[in-house]
Amino acid sequence: MEDKFSDLVQQNLFSESPDIPYLKSIIESNLELNSEDTNELIYSITLKLNSSLFPPVTGIELILTEGCNLACSYCFEKDMAGHSKMPRNIAAKAIDLLIDYSNDCSELHITYFGGEPLLNYSVMRYITEYAQEQSSLRNKSINFNMTTNGTLLNRSIVEYLSSNKIKVLVSVDGLRRTHDKHRKDKNGNGTFDRVYKNLKLLKEKQPWIGIKMTIMPIECKYLFDDVINLYNMGVNQFLIGPATGVSWSAQTINTYLSQLEKLYEWYFSYPRSDLRINEFDEIENKPFFGCHAGRTNIAVGIDGQISPCSKILAINNTNLLSKLGNVYLGLTNFKNRLRLNECSELHVECERMGISEEYRGGCYASNYYETGSLFIPSMKDHNFDKARHSLSEKFQQLKRITN
């Protein structure tokens, strides 16, 4: 049955705009299948084609809800409509798809995302247990992660997260003066005190605390002091990144880079076993252009539509940019996945701009916010990346001289 329609499915899926309703109607009329059986047939053929053409998918972001209890000024998801939540059946389908598309890979990654994922805590619990059960049946292991604003954590939730080994990354942009400037609740009140209280609660069960810092231009002058003090308050790991979709002047870029250099010097001058700054430790030259979005990682929206990543999904969640498919039929948009994997357009643009030897194209979403295209590099991101590499080389030289 599959062989008979495999060529038809393949031809359709490699078209510029796959016509899935037409494909389904042809199969249903010729094989006299119902809609569910037709979906299963297309899913099976699509899975085989993806497995033969592309890398395995090993990571998935689940957008458990579009809603959030905060009103952060820089939020890249602020244009997502409504407060809808992902239902159990779609979440389960997403897990099934991840396991199917992982091929022979035994270690998988699930990230709970939003909005604020804890607003859909019941589905998060359900899907955690479902994923554990299904992965065990296929001899695979799951690493769970969650990105949260930290305001809804309580003792019961923290205990559940701990017992199920769900690693929590909390969004904290700095000390109170920095954090409360942009991370406010719906009433316009700052959230630092609530988040810090819950961080201490989390640390009782998860001793290693990681935070995600989004740096706004006007607050970048506080970066060094904020990191030092947050470390002294119990934070162990920092993911630091400049805010996207906002304007950075030459002056604020220089201030940010000088703060990074100061922080870099402090970090490597006094190594600490209880501290990690990802942006300094994970500087690497990838063997491919672009990133893992659409390559080994995907994001699933509340309605089951599949995007390369949560940031790209948030650009327009009603008409997905570079849509890959849905949880019912699989990754059906082969042209889009091919563009993300080959990344020839981004490579050409980097060559045209003279940065292809030192840069791998950066974040697709950041590119889009600055240039209007996933495949034209953001020069702001390039400059930040170049500065981090320069810092790394500088301190590696100092280490060699010292040793």
Automatic annotation (TrEMBL):
Q: What organism is recorded for this protein? A: Methanoculleus oceani
PANTHER family reported for this sequence: ANAEROBIC SULFATASE-MATURATING ENZYME HOMOLOG ASLB-RELATED, RADICAL SAM DOMAIN PROTEIN
> Is Endoplasmic reticulum included in the keywords of this UniProt record?
no
The name on file for this protein is Radical SAM core domain-containing protein
According to its UniProt record, what is one Pfam family this protein matches? Radical_SAM
Q: Which UniProt keywords apply?
A: Iron, Iron-sulfur, Metal-binding, S-adenosyl-L-methionine
The answer to whether UniProt assigns keyword ATP-binding to this entry is no
Q: Where is the Radical SAM core domain?
A: 54-287
Signal sequence, start to end: none
Per the record, the domain of life is Archaea
